[in-house]
Amino acid sequence: MITPSFPRFLIILVLFFAPSLALDVSKPDYGDALSKAILFFEGQRSGVLPQYQRLTWRENSGLSDGWTYNVDLTGGYYDAGDNIKFGFPMAFTTTMLAWSVIEFADSMPPAELRNALVAVRWATDYLLKTVSQLPNRIFVQVGDPIIDHNCWERPEDMDTARTVYAVDAPNPASDVAGETAAALAASSMAFRSYDPGYWNAVKAFEFADSNRGAYSDNSNIRDGDELLWGAAWLRRATQDGQFLDYIQYNGKTLGAEDNINEFGWDNKHAGLNVLVSKEVIEGNMYNLQSYKASADSFMCTLVPESSSSHIEYTPGGLIYKPGGSNLQHSTTITFLMLVYANYLAKTSQTLNCGNINVSPSWLRQQAKKQVDYILGNNPTGMSYMVGYGDRYPQRIHHRGSSLPSVKDHPQPIACKEGSVYFNSSYPNPNVLVGAVVGGPGEDDIYTDDRADFRKSEPTTYINAPFVGVLAYFVANPNP
């Protein structure tokens, strides 16, 4: 039985006028947050759950995925609060989890490093299935988003069409295939072995390069950055000169000089520049200086005192980009700040931002401010990670979390029967520990409202870069 909560207006009063009830946000527990950020991925699992599943309110789901193509597409992650498996953001999530391990494994407690690698493996096992019919076909999605989004039901009860979306050559798919190549290449480095992921990364990249164009009709999604991103990860994983040549000779054609200051599942430009800059900073590749210049330019946009500053911050200090689900921008940008700071520090370099010089220490301090804000050091005193601290979002936009578990409600809950739970003002009965929600608006205000998905929905691609960020601060709480 679900017990009622305080009336909504009382919750808001407590939120704004009782800061003494909150945890000591000035001393965040980065180790606890790291553990929970990784645990979140268990709540997003699709397929047959293992015996070691820790979020026990979840059960098996999506067990027939792929049957319409006579292929096994079980497993993987639901990327957000719905029950769709989108290959593009899932691959980006995988890349960022793997990059978190590659850069910050030494900062992770051994148990959490194992858990992080398990999270990567759960994704790569699925991605390998999506490329199993290369060189001519890649599977990019399972589930009909229109039908699914018209339902509010547990993944364990799905009775909607599990439509499989595939792209056959010569139809374009260089965005999703390029990202899949990056994910598998990065994962092979995280696992520190040339496992099947590496060889399939090459196949995915060849498919991406041979079938250029975005698989989606969304004109906001480009594909050139994914081709360069995939090549950059294959270069880093293999040290093969052919991928270095690809980055060098195709960069201008594929938009590397566009200097787009974004990084997320649908735009890799800033991350690409940081990734490629590693070799430039270490003095190995002077012919890639344009990537380093673009990475420098991006970092300078984050410096409020710089003449090139243009990234917005909320009054409370959070990086803000319009469009909703803002914390996806904060966590990815924070990750890049830390990685770039480490690259610069290893060679005792600083960042020239026109009128000022910026040290690696400044980048780390700015990253810490973002992390501490997310964990509760913000104007509302609320942690935006579910289950961390004393006060966190209770009504997240997430089907499995908001509906009673199969253990508590064994009878199926059909498509429209879940609406009563969606419309309820009660807290979610199942705590999706570690989930980082979309976060507050440009005014630092957050309303704990399940219907406001832009603020209250968690996603895997918010959490994935945050894993690496938190790992760094576990080992370096006072950078």
From TrEMBL:
Keywords from the UniProt entry: Carbohydrate metabolism, Cellulose degradation, Glycosidase, Hydrolase, Polysaccharide degradation, Signal
Catalytic reactions on record: Endohydrolysis of (1->4)-beta-D-glucosidic linkages in cellulose, lichenin and cereal beta-D-glucans
SUPFAM superfamilies to which the protein is assigned, alphabetical: Six-hairpin glycosidases (SSF48208)
GO terms (BP aspect): cellulose catabolic process
Stretch forming the signal peptide: 1-22
Molecular functions per Gene Ontology: cellulase activity
Keyword Signal: yes
Active site location: H397, D448, E457
PANTHER family: ENDO-1,4-BETA-GLUCANASE (PTHR22298)
Protein name in UniProt: Endoglucanase
